[in-house]
Amino acid sequence: MEQEQEPKRRKEKPEETDATLLLARALDRIADAQDRGGLTKDDLTDVMEKNAEGMRRALKPENARHPDVSAFNPLGERDHPRPKLRRKTFWAGQELHHDELTTTEIDLFNKVEHSLESRNGSWRAELRRTAKDGASELHIVFPCASVDDRMELPGMVLLMQELLGGAQSVDPATLAERVAELEKQLAAR
After folding, report:
1. Is the distance from CB of 114 to CB of 126 less than 8 angstroms?
2. Contact at 8 Å (CB) between 91 and 105?
3. What are the extents of the domains in the chain?
4. Angle separating helix axes 103-111 and 156-165, nearest 10 degrees
5. Which of 4, 45, 56, 155 sits in a 20 to 30 Å window from 23, CA-based?
6. Whether the predicted model's global pTM rises above the 0.70 cut
7. What average pLDDT values come out for the chain (189 residues) when binned by 10 residues?
């Protein structure tokens, strides 16, 4: 009676197949080894290596150095990280977070050094101290209770620019005059 020879197993590279499949195959070999009378050191080492590879893949994604590009940071967080907010910042009562703001928006919020107002006080940037630890919080307040209120609001950047620079800072006529002035200065050089 001829003894069945175990077929030669080729070494599988982890990139060639799913780590779970590799582990399943290794476990099958353990079951076969138990039928033969026990596990060998090589069988156990093989299973442990496949399990370690599966855990590594599960915990560390393939693209570990992804650029973290998003609509909020099209240049990518890895190569061009956005600044952090200097203080807790609230927009119409909702706390804003670093990862949901553009660099321009963060810079505008960080420029607020004292309480500001615009539109006869209906738009306000209020710096408040918390009772808990005395930390500073920035609250941007504006009318937004009705649909009409919300429809008349500009975007976040324009609202903040008006709070910081006054109504003339976002007035199209004033801005056009300023651009013409700067063009004259450049032409004179």
Report:
1. no
2. no
3. 19-59, 88-179
4. 30
5. 4
6. no
7. 50 56 74 70 80 78 75 88 94 93 95 92 91 88 92 91 82 84 90
